[in-house]
Amino acid sequence: MLNKKKLFILISAVILVIILFFVARKLIDNRSTGLVGANITLNESSNFTPPEFMNEAEKAKFNLPTDSKIQVLKRNAVGETEVYRVIRKDTDIILDPSRIGDPDMIQPEK
To answer: Which of 1, 17, 72, 74 is within CB 3.0–4.6 Å of 82 for a Cys-Cys bond?
Structure first.
């Protein structure tokens, strides 16, 4: 009887470790994409595009603080930024390009 208890505890522990491994892996994957806590459902008709952020040179060109997080929403044919958004918190990141016309978008002066 004691051997069955030990076997049950051992199998339960192994299953628990496997579950914890997959949960930790999922959390690490979400952190590396910057989408922690995001509840995103993607399907074939989704407009999801990975967010792109300005580098230091682009920020300097628009006189933006170099320590700020700026998402590039649209580029012209030459690759210059046409539309950008200042990211103050992670929920400000635009994942759907159809939201570009929102009134809180910032367009640089030409």
So the answer is: 74
CA end-to-end span of the chain: 81
Going by C-alpha positions, the residue among 76, 89, 85, 87 that lies closest to residue 107 is: 85
Q: Residues 82, 85, 86, CA angle at the centre, nearest 5°?
A: 135
- Residues 71/53, Cβ–Cβ less than 8 Å: yes
Residues 82, 70: Cα–Cα separation, whole Å: 13
Query: Domain map of the chain by residue range?
Result: 1-33, 52-101
Q: What is the pLDDT along the chain (110 residues), one digit of tens a residue?
A: 568 888 899 999 999 999 998 888 877 765 555 544 455 555 555 556 688 899 999 999 889 998 899 998 888 899 888 888 888 888 888 877 666 665 555 555 54
Identify whether the C-beta of residue 62 lies closer than 8 Å to the C-beta of residue 108: yes
Beta-bridge partners for 86: 70
Sort 9 into a burial class: Cβ within 10 Å, 0-12 / 13-18 / 19+: exposed
